[in-house]
């Protein structure tokens, strides 16, 4: 069966929850979506410019957004605190000012909080960044995928599937390569699966990375 449905949207309301919590009228819905995209892009750009270690690694697992009438609450889930500004009040205030300027919002306050993730390599976004960094350094794609699976085995995940598509190793014809370890039941709704799609630009062209991580399976209610 084809994998044409996003695993996160497929399980909303059962094992997955929304990354953004807010309500808007139908005519203002698109404005809210664009606002969320601006917030996430502004945070990622700031981290890229001001990270402590000079590598292409952001270490951001996900960014949660909660909107109220007079407040926007942003929660950044990170895996490596040394890559970000955790614990630095000045850095967080500077980040809030940058996001506030990007939004051009005067009536709503912005509050940014940072949460540390205990097992970062159990997050698909961080694993995809790791693979992308390896591919940029011209490491073999098979070696990169196997190393990512080895890092995931240190966590409590039950299965992982990694897929890379595009002109791999500079070949003339684009192809898809994938590797799987453990169980990844994509059609089971009660199975909690984390998923991400990541795009990387290399000297050969654009490559796409997809990662599915089988976290846990919940029984019937």
TrEMBL record:
Domain of life: Eukaryota
Molecular functions per Gene Ontology: RNA binding; structural constituent of ribosome
Cell compartment(s), UniProt: Plastid, Chloroplast
UniProt cross-references to InterPro entries, sorted A to Z: KH_dom-like_a/b, KH_sf_prok-type, Ribosomal_S3_C_sf, Ribosomal_uS3, Ribosomal_uS3_bac-typ, Ribosomal_uS3_C, Ribosomal_uS3_CS
Pfam families: Ribosomal_S3_C
UniProt subunit comment: Part of the 30S ribosomal subunit.
Family classification: Belongs to the universal ribosomal protein uS3 family.
PANTHER family attached to this UniProt entry: 30S/40S RIBOSOMAL PROTEIN S3, SMALL RIBOSOMAL SUBUNIT PROTEIN US3C
Name this protein carries in UniProt: Small ribosomal subunit protein uS3c
Organism: Elaeis guineensis var. tenera
Organism classification: Eukaryota, Viridiplantae, Streptophyta, Embryophyta, Tracheophyta
